[in-house]
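Researcher: Let's do a round of design. I'm pasting the structure tokens now; please hold your answer until I've finished.
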């Protein structure tokens, strides 16, 4: 559980935009710690260029050596096989932040995670398509009921009744077509869910 929580924190941190540094932060910055945090978030070492731009206005130059030392230390925590999987599984991106000695192991897990992410997306897409068709089916049923009730009301001309009848018939035809398509959409969901289940089984080692 602790490992999973740590991986989640790292992944969430990746998604958080970094704020610019003000004068006080530039003057008191611990560049090794900043480098460590960036490395642990999977940010590329080139992120220091952002701090350099921020601090230049305040006459401060970042300590590149300290930053790089901290970044390597942070990257050692981030660039693991298991965390690569967590990042890929969440749909995160890789910013080429891992040292060459760690990159292959990280990318192996990252690609596995990406596979599972794509399988989950396929399930979501299949369910979304089914739900959309189900909403259309419900709407058509409601339209038919409303127009059928309107058809028997007083005050309609012959042409208006004919137009309503035509609209009802069209809705009924579309209703049949929509209903006939539902089993195929259900099968798509089942296939996608089965593929996801196989993927989860294949990558159970990451659990």
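Researcher: That's everything. Go ahead.
Model: Designed sequence:
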């Amino acid at each position: 559980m602790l490992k999973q929580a740590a991986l989640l924190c790292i992944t969430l941190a990746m998604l958080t935009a970094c704020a610019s540094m003000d004068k006080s932060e530039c003057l008191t910055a611990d560049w090794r710690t900043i480098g460590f945090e960036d490395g642990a978030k999977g940010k590329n070492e080139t992120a220091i260029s952002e701090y350099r731009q921020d601090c230049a206005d305040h006459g401060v130059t970042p300590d590149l050596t300290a930053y790089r030392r901290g970044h390597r230390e942070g990257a050692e925590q981030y660039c693991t096989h298991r965390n690569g999987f967590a990042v890929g599984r969440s749909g995160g991106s890789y910013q080429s932040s891992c040292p060459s000695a760690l990159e292959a192991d990280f990318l192996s897990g990252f690609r596995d995670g990406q596979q599972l992410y794509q399988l989950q997306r396929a399930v979501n897409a299949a369910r979304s398509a089914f739900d959309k068709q189900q909403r259309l089916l419900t709407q058509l049923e409601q339209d038919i009921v409303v127009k059928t009730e309107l058809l028997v009301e007083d005050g309609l001309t012959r042409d208006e009744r004919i137009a309503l009848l035509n609209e009802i018939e069209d809705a009924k035809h579309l209703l049949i077509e929509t209903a006939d398509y539902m089993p195929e959409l259900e099968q798509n969901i089942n296939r996608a869910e089965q593929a996801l289940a196989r993927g989860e089984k294949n990558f159970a080692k990451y659990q």
